[in-house]
């Protein structure tokens, strides 16, 4: 079907508007982070990033976020692949009921669970530890991950699993050697999404952590913003430091991420 010139121009105009609306906040933060304290002095101030790093203790906050995110992503990815394979490729009694119960983790918001979670983890002596940040986020991430991977395996597995079974392959070999290589885009998409959610998690860290040495980057940025001596450019520089790891990860994995999203949209 041929597309007229008017339709093509209209499409590009719409894309241009959405691109500008997405880039404007980002460019505004970058410009604010690099401008001088007093508007009109002229020149860029990249030293604002150094000031935010040292004064705001973002080195420790970013390290804590990296530890929590790495553990949550690794554990969630493994459990999600296993659960997705079980619900998508295996046949067993009660599969639908168990999958429905697992999806409750996606339906209940964190705000509704954080208070009872706090008391439970406090009774176990786990507050003010990495486990208080890791365990709840793994539970919520696996709920989505199992749903995501199940959709992929349901759309790819029937013929492949039957062929692997005819060759004498068991479940482990079928998953590891046959299905997992095909699932790489879906797994990468899952990793990026879980990393994004875990890195940006604020409420859980605010409730579970009182030790400054365990604060994550978003929580550290909130306390940094509350200081009376914090300037606007330095605060914007701190925001850049907090957002930079997510941006770098997405840029590094964007091809697989987009492919995984398209596969999910077309075949899910």
Question: What does the model show?
Answer:
The chain has 268 residues and is mainly α. It has a domain at 63-217 and 243-263: MetI-like fold (Orthogonal Bundle), CATH 1.10.3720.10. It is 80% helix and 0% strand. The protein contains twelve helices and no strands. The longest helix is centred in the middle third of the chain and has 37 residues, at 130-166. The two termini are 26 Å apart. The model has no long low-confidence stretch (mean pLDDT 84).
Gist?
With 268 residues, this protein is an all-alpha fold. It is 80% helix and 0% strand.
Number of discrete helical segments: 12
User: N-to-C SSE series?
Assistant: HHHHHHHHHHHH
Share of β-strand residues: under 5%
Question: For this structure, what is the CATH class of the domain at 63-217 and 243-263?
Answer: Mainly Alpha
The CATH architecture category of the domain at 63-217 and 243-263 equals: Orthogonal Bundle
End-to-end CA span: 26 Å
Low-confidence stretches: none
Main beta-sheet strand count, sense and barrel state = none
Mean pLDDT: 84
Task: State the CATH topology of the domain at 63-217 and 243-263.
Answer: MetI-like fold
This entry's quaternary arrangement is single chain
Going by CATH, what is the homologous superfamily of the domain at 63-217 and 243-263? MetI-like
How does the overall form come out from the CA principal axes? globular
Write the layout of secondary structure elements.
Layout: H1 5-34, H2 47-55, H3 58-89, H4 95-102, H5 104-107, H6 110-123, H7 130-166, H8 171-182, H9 184-200, H10 203-208, H11 217-225, H12 232-267
Helix pairs in contact: 1-12, 2-12, 3-7, 3-9, 3-11, 7-9, 9-12, 11-12
């Amino acid at each position: 079907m041929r597309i007229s010139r008017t339709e093509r121009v209209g499409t590009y105009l719409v894309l241009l508007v959405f691109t500008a609306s997405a880039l404007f906040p980002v460019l505004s933060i970058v410009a604010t982070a690099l401008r001088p304290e007093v508007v009109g002095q002229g020149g860029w101030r990249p030293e604002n990033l150094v000031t935010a790093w040292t004064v705001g203790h973002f080195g420790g906050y970013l390290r804590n976020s990296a530890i929590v995110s790495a553990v949550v992503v690794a554990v969630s990815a493994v459990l999600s692949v296993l659960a997705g394979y079980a619900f998508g490729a295996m046949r067993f009694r009660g599969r639908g009921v168990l999958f429905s119960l697992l999806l409750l983790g996606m339906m209940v918001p964190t705000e509704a669970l954080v208070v009872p979670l706090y008391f439970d983890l406090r009774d176990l002596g786990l507050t003010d530890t990495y486990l208080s940040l890791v365990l709840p986020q793994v539970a919520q991430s696996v709920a989505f991950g199992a749903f995501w991977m199940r959709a992929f395996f349901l759309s790819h597995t029937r013929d492949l699993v039957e062929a692997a079974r005819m060759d004498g392959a068991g479940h482990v070999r079928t998953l590891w050697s046959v299905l997992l290589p095909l699932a790489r885009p879906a797994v990468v998409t899952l990793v990026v999404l879980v990393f994004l959610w875990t890195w940006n998690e604020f409420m859980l860290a605010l409730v579970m952590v009182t030790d400054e040495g365990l604060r994550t980057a978003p929580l550290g940025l909130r306390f940094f913003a509350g200081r009376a001596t914090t300037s606007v450019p330095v605060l914007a520089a701190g925001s850049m430091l907090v957002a930079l790891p997510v941006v770098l990860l997405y840029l590094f994995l964007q091809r697989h991420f987009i492919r995984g999203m398209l596969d999910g949209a077309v075949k899910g």
